[in-house]
Amino acid sequence: MSSAPCRTLLLVVSVISALLLPRSSTATVLLKPKGENAISLRTKALAADITIYGQFATTTVLYTFQNETRGRVEADFIYTLPPRAVATYFAYWFGEEKIIARVVEKERAAAIYQHIVSRQRDPALIELIGKNTFRARIFPVMPGADLKVELVTVEALASDQSGILYQLPLRADGVPEAALDALDVKALVTADPAIQKVTTNYGLPVAQDREGYHVSLSGINYKPPKDLRVRIARKPRPLQTALYAAPSGGPDGFFALALTPDHSLVRPKVSIKGITTYAVLPARLPDVKAHSTLTVFGRYKGSGRATAVLTGKSPKGRLTYSETVWFGAKPEPNNIATKLWAARQIERLGADPRNRSTVMRLSLRFCLPSAFTSWLAMPKEEMERYRRELEALRLNLKMNAVAAKIAELIASGRGNTRRLAQLRAELNGLSRQAGGSAWRALNSLRGRLWSEFNAELRKDKPDMRKVGRLKEAWIALETDVTRELATMRAEREAVLIELRKLYPQITEARAKGRPDELARLEARRVELDRAYQASYRLGDPLITVEAPADAQQVVAIMANGEVKPLAYNARLGRWEARFDVPVYAREGEYVITVVIVLKDGTRKVVTISYRVDLTAPAGLGKAEMIAGDGQALRLELDGDDDTARVIALLPWGERVELRPSAMQPHRFFATALVPPSHQGQRFGVTYIITDHAHNRGEVIVGISGD
User: Fold this and answer.
1) Which of 43, 88, 202, 539 is the most exposed place for a label (fewest CB within 10 A)?
2) Using N-to-C axis directions, what is the helix angle for 464-476 and 438-458, rounded to 10°?
3) Of 570, 591, 612, which one is at a domain's C-terminal end?
4) pLDDT tens-digit readout, 369-392
């Protein structure tokens, strides 16, 4: 017989709710919500399917928990196995979908879990947190919902003078107990001529047939008074042997051999004659008491009859035992011996970093968690979503590399236009594959270029050739969809920086009585101000439409008949495009028709209206001195209903953004310290008012020094 195979899905579990806390000699299970004061999840049902082969057992347990709270919880399912047991399989249910865990490198599994949980999705993570103890973090457990968890273990059973003992935990110690809605346990002890009798501590009837001995325990609204123990008494022999041996896909097999002598032995040794064995564990056997069991695990070549020999020193002198055993030839994928041998190998190698690659290879091959790996499980939908995100990341990394080459080529001034065109075409192709989300890969590089562009412009004597190259490089990193808008932003920033430099010059010309210079500066200010307003009004409108990411096409038919394609924004999960309002457009309402062509070819039409507002906002402003240690200025402006932002430009070059008042709608205010150079002088304050349509108005007020 074989245990469940390792699958290719991801699970990450984190739930804690009171379930089963059996005694230390058996498994320990704890399940409760995460958090110090969390309310326990109720254990609703338990079903178990047990098969015992000689002295080895496989157990499949299905736990059902219920979240009786009003909120969703992240929980930790903590399970401590008995010393001889190995967990070989973990799964949970998300709705109707059964999600099976697979082994993933520990750091990667934790990163994936955090990535998915941060999006409020449904993963599960299973990690070893101690010897034979693992924790499964599951998120989320929804309010009022059931959480089903399936666990498969294999183990080598202990024995004493009364025979072999199997134990299944059915009750909790140290926590309030409640009746289970349903309990259903079925156990099969496979037929073996060495068996004399099978009994249970519940006094259950034992049915016997050709398959073996059958035991069942079930109930509705039932509170188990104790754990279930199955006792297998064997006919007396000097040496009791139990061998599980079978290949698992390859030519060589795996075996687990349990030896129970009738005398205590010191420094025991085991040898197998008639079959070639290798990779046998443990290398050194512990001393054994009479009727207790020594278990060895290993690999073998060939098949057929062999002799197991056990020797050691006893109180009666040196003893030698021998028994005939049979090594199987029929393949049993992922059989009990396979899992037990691999688990012992992983345990032997431990957490030594020098053994990392070997441990990971064993862990991945046999689907067992280790010090360097975890089990991870995700619903199919989340798996596909994560794969898409990984592909997007891969594309973004490639885009970043191409973008760096573009920036380097432009900044160098070498002017290789053919190479530049090739790189831009490559960047646009990658951007289309990534759903138009080139901003992810280019954000850091563009940010650096933008900072250098700004820094150069702010100098008293900027190098305009350098400014031009930086601007060109920054714009070149945009995709076709947004390059025109990037150009506008760069031009707008250059205009704004020149305006900031111009205001102190205007104040100085006015104060020193230079009318010709003042007129020239004012004319330039009006020219720049108009350019700034135009760049805002004509470049900012955005069309956004909610449509599936896999839509064939989304296009907008503009009011003037122009057809504009929309690009999918993967970050925001919507389709969008910027558009320009023609300079000849009159004020009023306009309609955009958006046509969505879905994956299956069906069409959906959406209409979007927008208003062209060309009226500059107005306001009533004032500026007055206020008392303080030094001279300070209170800035205040009452704006129109549509006022979005107010900036004060002060004559010493400072730019102050006014805050909206919480008490009086449309009123904005701020305070500013007056530098010694302007204390006691007459000067003016210019307020720049921006409305929600990005129209800008100007209000100039005067103030005299106190």
Assistant:
1) 202
2) 170
3) 612
4) 888 888 887 766 666 666 666 666
